[in-house]
UniProtKB/TrEMBL annotation:
Residues 9-110 form the Rieske domain. Keywords: 2Fe-2S, Iron, Iron-sulfur, Metal-binding, Oxidoreductase. This is Rieske 2Fe-2S domain-containing protein. It comes from the Bacteria.
Length: 358
């Protein structure tokens, strides 16, 4: 079990990464092997032969059949052993775990928990996805040398943008603006408006603001580790409603965190925006800027992770800005505890228990 929520959909890969060559990726600490069947549908198996534990990815894909590279055991897409060279009987334990997959938003989503609970309707909905007037950048990936909860801390923490991102998405105007927090069944929201402020570097570059601006940062964290940020700028003083926000410079930034190990995380991201649309060179600019922004987080979080490993301590001081991160950790802990209890008592976890909030 360990310290991950298993009964949830995680992005395992972008669709473009999964093909007829094996793709291997560690997910929630487990080695996963992915490929596409001849009919194009994706498959995920535990990358571990049940015989001598050789990684199956060292062997060959024969049609849709996975052949171990050590003694040639063959498995079908469900992980059932279909051939043992040199003996007619197939031992019942010769079975590889397979994982449910769903393809959505150009991504392959994996379910590492109880198979019976895997419901594709639970996959998060992406705002304005492929809607007219909104441009999409997707297929982006970064590897964070950080525990995923340090990243979720960061993603509901608008206060850090002033310091970590002063060259990209923050400026000094945000320094003393308090962050408000709201909590729902399955999410935590940290948000603030920064009023009468100089436009941030991004807004100066992409927008056409003549004077001061109001800007908003709404940081949502959905269980277990999906972040989306509704982020935008309007002229100072305009009424705060959806219509005006959509007329301003607005974007939705999605970060799908998939724990790799206790200390490392896969960071898949996509971005939807309403400004400078239909311009591939602007897409490239925004991709570069977002990558730069996330790399700023990557650097500080890797350093934080290292210091935490050295000291065995996560934080010595708790501040007001830690309210939202603390709520997420509480929700996550509760879900993990429910899953562990179910595993120990051998009573399968129910869908209702999956909805437990903090
Ligand atoms: S280790 Fe895979 S067949 Fe022996
Ligand atoms: Fe950040």
């Amino acid at each position: 079990m360990g310290t991950f929520i298993r009964n949830a959909w995680y992005v395992a890969a972008w669709s473009k990464e999964v093909g007829r060559q094996y793709l291997t990726r560690r997910i929630l600490g487990e080695p996963v092997l992915m490929y596409r069947k001849e009919d194009g549908s994706p498959v995920a198996l535990l990358d571990r032969c049940p015989h001598k534990l050789a990684p199956l990815s060292l062997g060959e894909l024969k049609g849709d059949i996975v052949e171990c590279g050590y003694h040639g055991l063959q498995f079908d897409c469900s992980g059932t052993c279909v051939r043992v060279p040199g003996q007619p009987q197939i031992p019942p334990a010769a079975q590889v775990k397979s994982f449910p997959l769903v393809e959505r938003y150009n991504a392959v989503w994996i379910w590492m928990g109880e198979e019976a609970l895997a419901n594709p309707d639970d996959i998060v909905e992406v705002e304005r996805y492929r809607m007219p007037g909104w441009d999409l950048i997707d297929g982006q990936y970064l590897h964070f040398k950080s525990n995923y909860l340090n990243i979720t801390d960061n993603l509901v923490d608008p206060a850090h943008t002033t310091y970590v991102h002063k060259n990209t998405i923050g400026n000094a105007a945000g320094e003393n603006v308090t962050v408000k927090v709201e909590q729902g069944e399955q999410h935590v929201l940290a948000y603030r408006w920064i009023e009468n402020a100089e436009p941030i570097p991004l807004a100066k570059k992409m927008g056409d603001f003549k004077g001061l601006t109001d800007r908003w940062q709404y940081y949502y964290l959905l269980m277990p580790s999906i972040s989306y940020v509704d982020f935008g700028t309007v002229d100072a003083g305009v009424e705060r409603n959806e219509e005006n926000k959509n007329r301003g410079l607005r974007s939705f930034s999605y970060n799908f965190l998939t724990p790799e190990t206790e200390n490392t995380t896969h960071y898949f991201w996509l971005h939807v925006r309403n400004y400078q649309t239909g311009k591939p060179d602007i897409d490239a600019d925004v991709t570069k800027l977002m990558t730069l922004t996330f790399e700023e987080d990557m650097a500080i979080l890797a350093a934080v992770q290292q210091a935490q490993e050295e000291t065995g301590v996560r934080e010595y001081v708790r501040l007001g800005i830690d309210n939202a991160p603390a709520r997420i950790r509480k929700m996550v802990d509760k879900r993990i505890a429910a899953e562990q209890l179910a595993a120990e008592s051998n009573v399968p976890i129910t869908r209702a228990e999956l909805q437990v909030a903090g």
